[in-house]
């Protein structure tokens, strides 16, 4: 079952619920992922970058980010 953006938004935590340490870990993970992509000659799409920024800020959880990415990938596959 795919999650709609509205469903995911309704379940998201308040950005203040993640600690500064968690935000730092997320920033480091995002930076590492971007670096890995660059090494492969790839870049994040604007859409993926925006989603990553929401995740780093604590607007969405790991599971929600994953669900959104899967939903978008499946939608592109149907086009």
From TrEMBL:
Amino acid composition bias (Polar residues), ranges on this chain: 1-10
Organism of provenance: Vineibacter terrae
All copies of domain Antitoxin VbhA, residue ranges: 26-72
Region Disordered: start-end pairs: 1-32
Pfam families referenced in this protein's UniProt entry, alphabetically: VbhA (PF18495)
Biased composition (Basic and acidic residues): 20-29
Gene3D superfamilies: Antitoxin VbhA-like
Protein's name according to its UniProt entry: Antitoxin VbhA domain-containing protein
